[in-house]
Specification:
It comes from Alterisphingorhabdus coralli. Belongs to the UPF0410 family. The structure is a single chain. With 87 residues, the chain is mostly helical. The chain has one domain. Helix content is 72%, strand content 0%. Helix 1 crosses helix 3. The mean pLDDT is 78.
C-alpha cells in the first residue's frame, strides 16, 4: 500500500512542481511521478534540517508539501544544468 501512496503523492507533487517551474508541457505523467518521488526524498532530507519532514508511507499534507518543495528544488537544479539559468 505504501508504494501506491508514493506513486499518487509523487504524481501530484511532481505535476504541481512542473506547473510552478513552467515545465508542464515538456513532462509526461511518468516523469511527473519520478520527479515527485525523488523530490519527496529531497524534501524529507531538507526538512530534516528544519525539524519537519513528511512520511511517504501514508498520506499527509506535510508529506505532500515536503514532496512538492523537494520537487521544485529538483526541477530548479535541472533547469540550471540544462539551460544555465533558472527560468
Amino acid at each position: 500500500m505504501g508504494w501506491i501512496v508514493a506513486i499518487i503523492v509523487g504524481g501530484i507533487s511532481g505535476w504541481l512542481a512542473s506547473m510552478v517551474m513552467n515545465r508542464d508541457a515538456s513532462m509526461g505523467i511518468f516523469w511527473n511521478v519520478v520527479v515527485g518521488i525523488i523530490g519527496s526524498s529531497i524534501g524529507n532530507w531538507v526538512g530534516g534540517f528544519f525539524g519537519f519532514g513528511g512520511t511517504i508511507q501514508q498520506f499527509s499534507l506535510s508529506g505532500l508539501f515536503t514532496s512538492f518543495v523537494g520537487a521544485v528544488i529538483l526541477l530548479g537544479v535541472l533547469n540550471l544544468i540544462q539551460r544555465g539559468k533558472v527560468r
